[in-house]
Amino acid sequence: MTTWEITNTIAALVMPPGSALLFIVFGLILLARRRRVLGVTVIAVSAVLLYAFSMPIFSNVLVRSLEEGYSDPTNMSSGDAIVVLGGGLYYRAPEYGGSDTVTPQVLARLRYGARLYRRLHKPVLVTGGSPRGEASAEADVMKHVLEDEYSVPVRWAENASNNTTENARFSFQILGSAGIRTIYLVTHAWHMARARASFEREGFTVIPAPTLFKTDGPRTIVDFLPDAGALENSSIWVHEVIGRAWYRLKSIASSRS
Prior knowledge:
Layout: H1 3-14, H2 18-32, H3 36-53, H4 56-64, E1 81-85, E2 89-93, E3 99-102, H5 104-120, E4 124-127, H6 138-149, E5 156-158, H7 164-177, E6 182-188, H8 192-202, E7 205-211, H9 228-256
Parallel strand pairs: 1-4, 1-6, 4-5, 6-7
Antiparallel strand pairs: 2-3
């Protein structure tokens, strides 16, 4: 297994619903071993948490806790380049002749990156490799979409990275050699804190340019009912909390070595 596969396998077991299901199995094992009270308690708590993570009203609060207050980056003209982070591919898209293209999530980042380019007129770098061993690197596909669909020129395509840390490291190798240290960083609002820390650790000065904030419409009864999208948002929250803690530990370990 590749490092990417190992990391994401562990993540799938730690994040909901994987973690909740594992605890339910653990509770059933306790019941089988006649530890009835503890087994029932573990199963009940796991079921309640799984339901809570599945409620839009709860998951939205979790995701918004990851989103910091940011000012409009177009009011800041000190950046030297726009960096747009990748985040997955839509493989063999039938409506695009079977070619790989970007996911809706990455398309949102590219759209905002195109908006920044038209307002700031700064050169663009896209970053993303082939973590699953794909024939198409994310950055190359992103470059194609920006240039062909948004008429935005892409000066650099960093196509070797497999995670946020490598996005930052390899982007610095490219931009640093061009004398660029201050960047506008485009990613999801919930991902910005961890992404920003990674890029600043490499030596960049980061001007946050987040997109797709979690916003709410009018409250309805549906907000309190289980929803697959809400469960995905809760998984994002758990992933980011663990990711931030892991990056912080690595930073502390590096500073002490």
